[in-house]
Amino acid sequence: MIKRLTIFGVGLIGGSLAMALRAAGTCHEVVGCSRSEEHLRQALERGVIDRYTLDPAEAVQGADMVVLAVPLGAMRAVCAAIRGHLAPEAALTDVGSAKGSVVEAVREGFGEMPLNFVPGHPIAGTEKSGVSAAFPGLFHGRRVILTPLETSDLGALARVRTMWEETGAVVETLSVAHHDEVLAATSHLPHLLAFGLVDSLARMGERDEIFRYAAGGFRDFTRIASSDPVMWRDICLANREAILQVMAGYQQDLGLITRAIEAQDGDALLEIFQRAKAARDEFCQ
Ligand SMILES: NC(=O)C1=CN([C@@H]2O[C@H](COP(=O)(O)OP(=O)(O)OC[C@H]3O[C@@H](n4cnc5c(N)ncnc54)[C@H](O)[C@@H]3O)[C@@H](O)[C@H]2O)C=CC1
Ligand SMILES: O=C(O)C(=O)Cc1ccc(O)cc1
User: Could you tell me which residue ranges the Prephenate/arogenate dehydrogenase domain spans (predicted)?
Assistant: First the structure.
């Protein structure tokens, strides 16, 4: 049971977490804190939080669980603002899409690594943002990756794990570096491809015509290009090295397809497409 949960950034992810824990009946009180009073008022009106404050130091007072659910670029400033105010027994975690940069931001914001910090990342979300898009079932049956540090307190790790399990999520642990490599490939690269494809087509000229004749495949492939541009700028800058590496590999593989088409090499194309279909059919049943 969490007595007082403080959430920084009550948007899609922070809001959905609060709703899920309330629905599970495992959280006594939820306090929201953000830069935007408008967002907090909306969260209060929707019954997502019990109260809010714009003062980070006040927000963490008496909290036994603190979740950083702000954009990656805001993590450091929030930590600096709560430095010296967090109770030593409070567990601290985050939901950021890249982990190396958050670990750095937390260390810099606090001036040292807090022992009760356990980085986390729910692999669940949508292309929508804000508390109006939040819903309690977002994490149900989805994976949450925790990337505990050598310094992470085991009690804090257990409490963060339990919190996510109470939302219906399946919790796994990875190292920070491994998380960032895997997510660069499975989440960051697909988002960049979707943004890139839509932008490229939108600038092709007869834009209305291009989109008018787009079929379901285009819609499926590009839903995530409606995601928050600021969030994805932050992710690209935060996970630069790993993203550049998977993009280079992908560009090479795309080159194989280009050359097979140029050479009218149907066998090579079939081999690639059959391999891809078998892999996807196996993983997405
Ligand atoms: N959108 C998604 O599908 C997923 C997002 N994430 C991560 O979750 C975090 C939040 O993303 P969303 O919930 O989608 O964003 P959101 O835009 O829905 O919510 C972010 C909230 O943070 C607040 N905020 C912004 N700057 C702030 C600051 N400087 N100080 C305090 N509060 C501030 C905003 O007022 C807003 O309420 C990001 O770090 C993102 O990488 C993780 C998994 C999925
Ligand atoms: O909308 C989708 O399908 C997503 O993939 C959402 C998402 C965005 C960022 C994350 O770090 C995790 C999940």
Answer: 3-285
